[in-house]
Amino acid sequence: MSAGLDPELQADVQARVAGLRARIAAAAARARRDPGDVVLVGAAKRQPIDRVAAAVLAGVHDLGHNYVQEAASMRESLHERLRELLETEPVPDVRWRMIGHLQRNKAAAAVRVFDLVDAVDSVKLARALDRQAETEGRVLDIGLQVNLTGEPQKSGVAEADLPALLEACDALDHVRVVSLMTMPRASDDPEDARSVFAGLRACRDRLGATPAGRHLEGLSMGMSDDFEIAVEEGATLVRIGTALFGERAGADAAVP
Question: What's the domain range around 104?
Answer without folding.
Answer: 7-244
